[in-house]
Design brief:
There is one protein chain. Helix 2 packs antiparallel against helix 5 and helix 3 packs across helix 5. A 3-stranded antiparallel β-sheet has the order 1-3-2. The protein contains 6 helices and 3 strands, in the order H-H-H-E-H-H-E-E-H. By secondary structure, the chain is α+β, with helices and mostly antiparallel strands.
Length: 110
């Protein structure tokens, strides 16, 4: 189980990263193409430093990677981190489906 493979701190970082609309949008963009941090900053009505902080949160959650290329920091989606997030959410969905199934069974008995 992915839940067992991820520490509570890892899961917290993942949900913290996805809790913000700007960070979700950055993930969506960098999974399609790589962007410099300054290129990302040009897309949002916030400071370069604020975008840099969002990227740092995503990087700590292993959802993106950042690579220094010349004077720029290039951000791209981290396929492995995104796969881990998908597996975690799939496991939560399976748990809820089991619970709904049990409730349906109880209701059918009554």
């Amino acid at each position: 189980m992915v839940v067992d493979l991820m520490s509570d701190a890892d899961v917290d970082r993942l949900f913290q990263a996805f809790a913000d609309a700007t960070r979700r949008d950055i993930v969506r963009r960098v999974t399609v193409a790589e962007y410099s941090v300054s290129g990302l900053a040009a897309l949002y009505a916030m400071s370069f430093a604020a975008v840099q902080k969002h990227v740092a949160v995503l990087e700590r959650a292993s959802l993106v990677t950042k690579e220094k290329r010349g004077r720029e920091q290039i951000v791209r989606g981290n396929h492995e981190g995104l796969q881990k997030a998908r597996r975690l959410l799939d496991e939560y969905e399976a748990i809820w489906r089991q619970r709904v199934g049990r409730i349906a069974d109880i209701l059918a008995e009554g």
